[in-house]
Amino acid sequence: MATALAGPTPPAIGEWKLPDRGTIGVIFLILTESALFTIFVVAYLVYIGKSLTGPYPKDVLDLPILASICLLSSSVTIVFAEHALKRERIGLFKLWWFATILLGLEFLVSTGLEWRKLIYEDHLTVSTNLFGTTFYSLVGLHASHVIVGMMFLLLVMLVSLFGFPIHTQERRVKFLSWYWHFVDGIWIVVFTVVYVIGR
Amino acid sequence: MASIHYPAEHPKVEEARFSFSSHLYEWVSTVDHKRLGLMYIVSALFFFVVAGLMATVMRLQLAFPNGHVVDPDTFNRLFTMHGTTMVFLVGMPFVAGLSNYLVPLMIGARDMAFPRLNAFGFWIFLFGGFLLYFSYIGGSGLSGAGSAPDVGWFAYAPLTSRAFSRGASTDYWILGILVAGVGSIASALNVIVTTITMRCPGMTLGRMPMFVWVMLVDSWLIVIALPPLSAAQIMLLIDRFLGGNFFNTQSGGSAVLWQHFFWIFGHPEVYILIFPAFAILSEVIPIFSRKPIFGRPAMVGAVCAIGFISLGVWAHHMFAVGMTSWSNTFFTASTMLVGIPTGIKIFNWTATMYGGKLRLDTPMLFCVAFLFQFLIAGLTGIMLGTGPFDWQLHDSYFVVGHFHFTLVAGLVFALFGGMYYWFPKVTGRMYNETLGKWHFWLFLIGVELTFVPMHFLGFLGMPRRIYTYAPGRGWEFWNLVASAGLLFQLPATLIFVWNVVYSAIKGKIAGDDPWDAWTLEWSISSPPPEYNFEITPEVHSSRPLWDLKNPNDPDWRFE
Fold first, then answer.
1. pTM recorded for the entire structure
2. Cβ contacts (< 8 Å) between B5 and chain A: which residues?
């Protein structure tokens, strides 16, 4: 429009750069997931010591030390994998990625064994008492998040094994690793609440 | 110099021959934010009519003492489905629909940040809605006669336990809302990411339209406050299907915990629902007062304050449950606190109108009525937020009157105003102003007749959710008046539907900018082309179109 040019000229807009949409998206996804976990954690805390019948946490729960170490160190290995990817050392990336999957798998297996012991030996199910209800739902919610993370980790592993140029997907790998860190962070909370405070 | 560019003629794409299936395919497979926004709003209007008819049946039942229109069980289902539908299938999709349609247009973006997630959000919401309504067929399982949920929209424990709620009707309530909630979160996430990452060059947060600001904070509330409901519903599912004990008082569980969890969601939810009204008013009032909004920074500050304070007021719904006096004091105080930013907003809208050159077209009429009625609703809210007062009137018709004044006399009025305001942009045609005014006045009279007497009924001791009442308690007259309001509300709604349908097809061509407005969506053609903006616009102030229309007196000199 010619008339639009008649007035004073507005100051020029400098370089216009806004945050990456994936970054913001993952941050808010993690935020909304945290809100979900918060309610389950609160429910667990509220019902500590409220069970009317046994088995009680102090009788049946063992500290999952090995599993916790595995899950937390998988947060370190996934960072190593990311660094390898950044330097385009695909072989090294695959190695660290595989280590991450193994560590995550070990966590899931020991959770499974723990649940097996609780169900078959201690006869604690989700309907036994309040401890059972809150324990299985909180730990189960976390474990289901680990499973979802594992599925994505496996997907990345598979496509890179079949020769997909995974270094082009550095950004998405980064988001996956953020999610994995989030799942690990939640585990620290769950561990503290269930195995330290709740026992 | 780059500026917003008006092309003389919009490029024409040759239209394919009309075929129903190809159109249907286009709508079903679309990821365009405008189409999804429209589909959200049309489904919301559909559910609005359905739930409105339910309310009609309830008002018929209550018009006279000892009513026999429906039996008690049906009445319980009616108020449950009415409340659930209005909150989750009308209010929430209106939030999503308005923000989907308008946010990208207002910030000069091509689409939402994640278009496919957006489509997923809509369809999963619609599926959730149908799942809820399928309970009418499948609620008692395949063998029994069907029935809908009858536990009230907040589904208090232990009423929802297997012992008291047999069949599958409560499960439909849980799953339908859980699934629709996923859609709401997806859409809110999308709005947040779009506003943060896709604003056109020059549109700093300080220049972003108020509408977008309010919708941003609204989406923040959805992302924070909806997961608690989902979590509580998952716990309820565990209780109902796996024999869990979360809300089972016999094994030490707490029914009050459900109330806490529900209202941790439920109170932010009422702000989630009313925010679109705030957003619409912040656009309509300045345009129809011919003044920039008064105290813009204070408005942004107020909406952000509400976005945080409203997360800490939930237990004022629970005074009657018997909490500690410290809790009562805290939640009374925090409720008073949230009244302050809301008061700031009402003051600023009024101050925007003060000294303005008012144009009382239909959108403005609805918004002015909102100001008065929402003020009253806010005042009764402050009354109910005070512990001792609430003990007297809890679960009475005063509460029903209060929240219907908020949501109908408030939100619905603003939504009507907003729909009239953006109607020419969306359809390219003008609605009929005379019919619009008829709609306004009839609806105003109807709403006042229906909902003002409810406050009196509450004072007279009428509890909510009763299916009938005996004569001689002094409730007959006001109940009859409340029901008589329908005689005005129903024709008003019919006029609105007729006006929308007729004008969309036969209305006068509206032009691109019929209101002489200032935000970016009015700079493009009506209806907007699929690609929104031919050239990414650049803005230099919070009123980019004002700058363009008044090159010698641009806003950016003063900002």
1. 0.94
2. 1
